[in-house]
Amino acid sequence: MGEFVSGLTTHVLDTAHGHPAKGVAVRLYRDGVLLTQCVTNLDGRCDKPLLTGAEMDIGRYHLEFSVGDYFRSIGTPMPTPSFLDVVTIDFGVADPLAHFHVPLLVSPYGYSTYRGS
């Protein structure tokens, strides 16, 4: 059985094209302070967790995903201004020892998220 690792991870899936979203800029904030940022890899993930368990605290967090830039970069026809530009997800952490996976499923005109495992 694998080792349990607490912390925060994300994953971006392009539902319009049916593949992981490579090249999405992701930023994580807490209380208005930028904690970390990354750009998604070929698998639509950051190369390392956004936060490790030791860095997690109880509180409110804010994720930003630059999806407008991503869709423009892969040649998706987009209106000006685009319907979605930066998708934000605000969520709370009540148990900093738990693992939080916050995926984003996105198209140019809609998105969804959930707490994954």
Summarize the structure.
This protein is mainly beta and 117 residues long.
Describe the protein:
- The chain is mainly β and 117 residues long.
- The chain has a single domain (7-112), classed as Immunoglobulin-like.
- The chain has one helix and nine strands, in the order ββββββαβββ.
- Strands 1, 2, 5, 8 and 9 form a five-stranded mixed beta sheet that branches. A four-stranded antiparallel beta sheet has the order 4-3-6-7.
- The relative contact order is 0.27.
- The model has no long low-confidence stretch (mean pLDDT 94).
Main sheet attributes: strand count, strand direction, barrel closure? 5 strands, mixed
What's the helix-strand series?
Answer: EEEEEEHEEE
Please name the CATH topology: Immunoglobulin-like
Q: Compute the number of helices.
A: 1
Domain tally: 1
Number of strands: 9
Q: How large, in whole angstroms, is the Cα Rg?
A: 14 Å
Shape: elongated
Please give the structural blueprint.
Blueprint: E1 7-14, E2 19-20, E3 25-30, E4 33-39, E5 51-52, E6 59-66, H1 67-73, E7 86-93, E8 99-107, E9 110-113
Parallel strand pairs: 1-8
Antiparallel strand pairs: 1-2, 1-5, 3-4, 3-6, 6-7, 8-9
